[in-house]
Amino acid sequence: MELQISPLAVTLPALPPLAGVRLGAVEAGIRYRNRTDLVMLELAAGTTAAGVFTTNRCPGAPVDWCRAALKGGRARAVVVNAGNANVFTGRVGRDACAATAAAAAELVGCPAKQVMVASTGVIGEVLAVDRLTAALPGLHAALSEDGWEAAARGIMTTDTFPKAATRTARIGGAEVRITGIAKGSGMIAPDMATMLCFIATDAKIPAPALDALLRRGVGGSFNCTTVDSDTSTSDTVLLFATGQAKHPRVPAEGGRMLAGFAAALDDLLLDLALQVIRDGEGATKLVRIDVTGATTARSAKRIAMAVANSPLVKTAIAGEDANWGRIVMAVGKAGEPADRDRLSVAVGGVWMAKDGGVVPGYDETPVVAHMKGREIAIAVDLGLGRGKATAWTCDLTHGYIDINGSYRS
Amino acid sequence: MELQISPLAVTLPALPPLAGVRLGAVEAGIRYRNRTDLVMLELAAGTTAAGVFTTNRCPGAPVDWCRAALKGGRARAVVVNAGNANVFTGRVGRDACAATAAAAAELVGCPAKQVMVASTGVIGEVLAVDRLTAALPGLHAALSEDGWEAAARGIMTTDTFPKAATRTARIGGAEVRITGIAKGSGMIAPDMATMLCFIATDAKIPAPALDALLRRGVGGSFNCTTVDSDTSTSDTVLLFATGQAKHPRVPAEGGRMLAGFAAALDDLLLDLALQVIRDGEGATKLVRIDVTGATTARSAKRIAMAVANSPLVKTAIAGEDANWGRIVMAVGKAGEPADRDRLSVAVGGVWMAKDGGVVPGYDETPVVAHMKGREIAIAVDLGLGRGKATAWTCDLTHGYIDINGSYRS
After folding, report:
1. In A113-215, beta strands by DSSP E
2. DSSP strand E in B202-311: where?
3. Residue B26 and residue B104 in one domain
4. Distance between CA atoms of B42 and B106, rounded to whole angstroms?
5. Does B88 touch chain A (CB under 8 A)?
6. Which residue in the list A47, A54, A166, A194 is annotated as catalytic?
7. Quick check: B358 and A233 CB within 8 A?
8. Is the minimum CB–CB distance between B404 and chain A shorter than 8 Å?
């Protein structure tokens, strides 16, 4: 099936080299033909690492591998394949991870436990690990500092455009860079998605501080987004610090000197998360949902996600219908404190419903115009407290059915 | 938009009169043209009543009205309109319920609090209550014992076929009848749906016993079904006992003499719930999900509903793809205890995945044939305990997008 590029696609930014990272992609023929499907990153000696993974109770073998390997807080390489998720593949799946890591470790000259592995694609089919390990030496020999775009393309599955972002920040006066790539387009829900994301910085940051930064950043980005409410078995976000930049020493607990870095990282994570939503399967509109006035921030987030996950809200948006009644329904189904008679709903900045009823004589013209656009803004005020949260989603269209009703065929 | 009749539609059964119920439908022109949209049931003096309603925190005004009115445990009439849900309509919505009940009460000769009201259709638009009350006297004058089919048709919205069921049971040796009608096709999720259901029996059952029977029955039927995970603001199931049949006195607490009646009621509720799923918006396949081996029954139900609500499972079924990998994903995303390496999945009775991996050399031929059928059976065994549950859903197709992307236009 030929996938058309999402109308919400953004252009790949320029991705300059990042000291301590060499990467690239190759055609290993694992599942796809005539496209790259195997990606490798080699990281400088001394690189620290942190990761956040799916909450799915049936995770793929690569997730288990990375969770265990990350205990050391160090990484020298990442191997990623697209086309086969290596999930629910039993013992052979675990063996495939070990064989991949061993092959990469030999090429790089490091312990196997310093190799991270990730896989994305079909669940339940045995990974052709022989093809993968056969392709690794050639891939390794061709790694370069300029391979970011190739890597971003090589990890795609149903993605229609490659996803990357880069930022700079200062630590103790010295400039450092953060660059990340991501893939994902369906099976996207909070606590992540069939979403892989690999980020590197040339800063020198101890693993515990790196871990804290990543967890906080993912909470405000990937975990506030949803395409279809389905939570993948493979979601993985890995963050590496190569330590090649010159700046004052960062303590293990991180702290205030990382404030600027944390802000840049948060911004980069949100950029990548929204690129994933922009490539949501079949998406034609990017939807932002702001909830205010909830009893708590946690309650606000649940309400925002209930709206973001509602098929009826999402199909209404696809139909360019500002159907605030369905928004009220979705708020109510969240099961969180809500008082129908204090609830207000706005679309495109126009309050259509307030205090439990339609706003008499509100001007529908700007709302109709807003609904025809590519970016839709929904606001819900509960009128109960100070809890607020934001979620992002996309519309639900025929394209989603097309893609997912015939994915394996 | 012209809706085609669901390929899963079932034929309306013969609906004989039920002593103590007269009913009918009329064109009130509330929203639709050239079809009935207003239904009334008149119930014999002494009728007891019980109800179960949506868990949505933003319920419609009619739900509030019925909850309050049912405290008396008695009912003499029901008025239902289709086309406008009278939800999020503020004070005018509450006034509309009171005006409807008052008008019906005057016709029947009872207190307004013995009139139940229900509305289904668009949310957030003011109900044309004047048209409704203007049509009531003519409707009341034409009520008859033979009006069951007319009533089943008059409460439809996006439904493509009318839904009814009838059963007989014995109480203390005497035969009694139970007859019910239902509507619903989207916004269908556990703890009900845009689902209205009205059931009557000629048995004489005290209100507390009736309430207990209904709650138990709904738990095993409507609350185990889902079309799209969206929970309506209007869900209502009402059960009336007209007391016209001659049988020994039933105590307030019900008890063993109602065992046969309870079984017949449960069967009728499940029949109606599955008719709603068969009319799920865009549905082409009815899907049953049996979960066994969970740690508890509650856990099994959550897992079954996670599978039933997964857009990726539902689109795979639409594509006739026995994609058990997506079933594994959905089991894992439920957040309930699950051990990937003990998990087994069957489709159409064939175990495709067992003990954490694909079953080597399983015969795909019967599975492929099964997926082409109208009724799909999925079984999941967790291998952990004795908890089990069943859920029902339908597939997710282009038809769902068609219907919901243009509902208001």
Report:
1. 115-122, 163-171, 174-183, 196-201
2. 236-241, 286-294
3. yes
4. 12
5. yes
6. A194
7. no
8. yes
Same domain flag for B299 and B258: no
pLDDT at A409: 37
Burial class (CB in 10 A: 0-12, 13-18, 19+), B243: buried
Same domain, A357 and A319: yes
d(CA B209, CA B70): 14
> Do the chains contact at B57 and A324, CB–CB below 8 Å?
no
Helix (H) or strand (E) holding B136: helix B129-141
Residues A267, A317: one domain? no
3-state secondary structure A205-228: CCHHHHHHHHHHHHHCCHHHECCC
DSSP string covering B172-219: TTEEEEEEEEEE--SSB-SS-BS-EEEEEESS---HHHHHHHHHHHHH
Is the sign of the CA dihedral B274, B279, B281, B287 positive or negative? positive
pLDDT tens readout for residues A347-398: 999 999 998 888 888 888 999 999 999 999 999 999 999 999 999 999 998 8
B78 falls within a domain? yes
Report which of residues B245 and A230 the model is more confident about. B245
Contact B324 A408 (CB under 8 A): no
Q: What is the pLDDT of residue B384?
A: 96
Q: What is the mean pLDDT of chain A?
A: 90
Is residue B14 domain-resident? no
Range of the domain at A97: 21-278
The count of structural domains within chain A is 2
Contacts of residue A343, Cβ cutoff 8 Å, sequence gap at least 6 = A328, A331, A353, A355, A356, A380, A381, A382, A383, B58, B88
Give yes or no for B324 touching A (CB within 8 A). yes
Q: Note whether residue B45 is domain-resident.
A: yes
Give the Cβ contact number of residue B359 at 10 Å. 16
Question: CA quadruple A385, A389, A390, A393: dihedral positive or negative?
Answer: negative
